[in-house]
Structure formats: structure tokens, C-alpha cells
Amino acid sequence: MALGPTLGTGVFIGAGQALAIGGPASLLVAYVFLSLLTYFMATTVAEVATHAPARHGTLVTNGFQYLTNSMGFAAGILRWYTLAMFVPYEITTAVVNLGLWNPGSTIAARLSILMTLIVACNFLPERHFRSSERLFTRIKIGTLISLLVLSLSIGYGGATGHDKWGFCYWRKPGAMHEYLTHGPLGKFWGLLQCVLHSSIAFTFVPELIVHRAETLESARETEIGEELDPAIQARIPRQVAIDTATTALPYILSSLAMGVMAPYDDPLLTNNGAGAGLSPYIIGMNTARIRIVSVTATIAILLSSVASARSFLYLASRTLCAMSELGHAHQVFKVRNQWGVPYVAVSVSALFTPLAFVSVRISSSVAITYFLLFVNSSGYLSWLVSCAISRSFRQRLRLCHNSRSYRFAIQPLGTHIGTLMSGILLMSNGLAGGVPGPLPGSRTSRLVAAYISIPIFALLYFAHRFRTMIPDRAFHHTQEGHNNKEEECGKGVAEVVHPQQGRPSAQPVSPETIEMNQVWSMAMEA
């Protein structure tokens, strides 16, 4: 399943805060909406990947190829630090899952243990990391399936001494919670906030879905310059459709199950209004008085948090390593040890991990909200960049009188919808953080966390464009000022060919890069 690396506390705990804000019906609608948006974004990325599968990932490679070098650099760094910021988010939600909400030295000790474990795992040899990734992915998927089955059992009277719950929480306290104001407008605001709080479970899912579809055989053939097998290209769209469905289905079922397990007015969902609290699953088990299962589920969710954090640190370090191999970051980041680990890239990416220590000064429930706002805004920016790449890709094909290898039925409408929705969510993320209301933290801090990604992205773009701080390392050796039709056609589209046509020769790939792609493929297949 493609959801393996992203299946963490975003769905187990983060959805609980969304449930408290919007209610069970709003949570279900939010997950259905985000699943559709994920499909639109996955097909947007997959059309480019089908035409020219990229060995270093669609967001890193295609930004340079179809936009500008400056935009590609900004997008690559954006992806890197967003993936790295997932690590302190997952660590903080792990301690919240344990009920450690109050700041102090006790929580600092537990944070240190989790950080050490996560960073140490990323220095394992690639072979051992690959094996552990498969194991943790199975644990997370097994945990989700077990919680869904348990929710169904409890909801229909499976717990001893309890009547059938069913959808009683949809009737009382209600299906939709009013937020900020009363009436239909209040329910709309609750739904919008529910979408924003649920988005973190879907961030970078489209990119991972496409990476799952780009098989190892496709990567090898593309890298060594051989002719691309048409069967491999034809398999990418089909695999994207399958993985999108298998990712959306458990998420939607999980949102439905959480609405059965806990009412939206339970104070434990938000730590009595302080922020993120316990998972709706844990609350439902405690209400049903099945303590042993509750403890087991708490441990399983903790393992899911640790597994997701180590996966995101891996993805962040390999993104930085890939940019270095492409010549867009310092060459030191691609240095690997004898076990194939880019230890410099891992060390630099791990520098974001100590941000979890903010929970020592403020409540971990409040810290989660700040991390969530920041990661969400960065994810929306990434989706906007993917849409821009897709539009530029289609424009250059039209300019060259060429056709796409495959066209999804929803495209280009899906790209337009993705652009519109990503822009609306990006702006709403900041507006919702600045309005007075029950959200934790100060209004100023929420606004900074929600909007800081925009000036960071702009700073990266203009710093690279003006060549004042960052050296120019062009991905494609193109010259400035090529505005005529022939030269514009050759930039970024000359490498994009049909399966029936040959592939241009490419530089040989190192064995370490082949091994990195094996880890990607094994992690996605798990």
C-alpha cells in the first residue's frame, strides 16, 4: 500500500481534534473531499511521470525540467524541510498519545529517547532499514485494520455489558458541530476547520502514490538509457488508480469509525480545549471498559508514530541527497558511507528533530497545532507547484505538436481543481489560525506558523534567481534567452518521448542510487 510511510498519528490522533471541531459528519465529508483531491493531485503528477519517469522523484526532478531552475530549487528545498518537519510532529503526537500533555523534565526525557531511536534507525545500513520498514508498515496497517474491526464490534454491542452504540453520537450531541458562530455558517466553518486539520494525513500522499507506481524496473531502464518498455509506462496510470483507492478507503472508513467511538464534545479529544488529545479509538475503548485492549492500542499507535517519524526522516535525507546528486545542493550531501547511507544528509535533516523540545516549554497539545499549521501550508504549496509543473508540461507538448503518453479522464480538470483547492486551503489555513476562537495558542503564533512557509518559499526562489547566495548549478545545460519556438520546445521536452520512440542516452547511475531506489520500491510495496 502507498500509505505506509504516511500512516501515522495524523489519522490516529490528529483526526480526533478535527472530530472535536467539526463533528462526525464533517470529519467524514472532509476525508471524502481530501481523498478526491488526492486523486486529482496524483493524476496530475502521474501524467508527467508516465511520459518520463524520474529516478529522483517527480517533485525534485520535474520542477527543474518544466519550470525554472529557481522554482525547481525552491520546490526541492520545500519538500525537504517539510518532510523533515514531520519528524518533530510525529514525536510530539507520540507523547500526546501517552497522555504526556504538561511541559516539564519528564516529557523531555521521553522526547530524548524517541529522538535517539528515530535518528539511530536512519543510520542503519540500507538493507536493514528496508527490512524494518516492511515490518513497521505491516504493524501500522495491522493496527488500522484492528481498530476498524474493534470499532465495528463495539458499535454493534460487542463490548460486554454495553448496548449497541451504532450512530448514537450522530444524533446526540449531533452530526455537525458549530464553530465560531451558530447556524449553517457555524457548521460551514466547522467543516472547513475539519478539512484543514485532516489535511496532514494526506500531505505528500500523491507523490508517494506515483513513486509506488514507478517500479524499480522502470527506474533502472530510464537511468541506463535503454528503451522504455511500453508495458511499464502503461502500468503507471493503472497502479496510481489502484493505490489511490486503497489509500482512500481505509482513511474514509477510519473517519466513519471515529465518529462511532467518541462524541465530538468529549473533552479528552482536545485535552480540555488545550489542543490535541487522546485518539477517539482510545476514548471509545475506555468508555467500553476494555482496558487491556486500550493499552495495546496505545502501544501500537506509539509504534506507528515512531515508524512514521523514521520514514519521514529517511525521505527528507534522500531528497537532500538527490538534490546534491543533481547538482542543486552542496556535493557533501551525496557522500555515503560503506553501507550506502548518506550520513551527512541524514545528520542535517535530523537537525529539525529537536524542535519537538518545544513541548518542554509549552503544552504538547499546543505544539502539535503549530506543527500542523506549518506542515499543512507547506503541503499546499507543494501541491501548487505540482499543478504548475503539469500545466507547463502540457503547454510544451502543445508547442512541440506532441502528445502525452497517457491522459487521465479527469485531466486537465483535475489540475485546475487541485490548483483552486490548494490555493483556497492555503489561504484558509492562515485565516482560520488568526480568528479568535477555541484553537490553542496565541493568534499571532498561529498566524506565523500558518504563513511562514510562503515567505520561506519566496526567499529560496529569489535567492537562487539572483545568484547572490546560492551558486547556479543548472540541471539542464540551457542558455538564457532562448525564447524561440524550436529552443523552447527542446527545453524539458526533448527528453519526453513516447514508449515507441527511443530514450536519449543518460549518464550511468551509481550502485548507491540503485540501492536507494530499491528501498523506495520495497517501502511502497510493503
Automatic annotation (TrEMBL):
InterPro entries: AA-permease/SLC12A_dom, Amino_acid_permease_CS, APC_YAT. GO terms for molecular function: amino acid transmembrane transporter activity. It is found in: Membrane. It comes from the Eukaryota. The chain crosses the membrane at residues 107-125, 137-156, 188-210, 341-362, 368-389, 410-432, 444-463. Gene3D superfamilies: Amino acid/polyamine transporter I. Residues 1-467 form the Amino acid permease/ SLC12A domain. It is a multi-pass membrane protein. Keywords: Amino-acid transport, Membrane, Transmembrane, Transmembrane helix, Transport. Pfam families: AA_permease. One of its GO terms (cellular component) is membrane. This is Amino acid permease/ SLC12A domain-containing protein. It comes from Penicillium canariense.
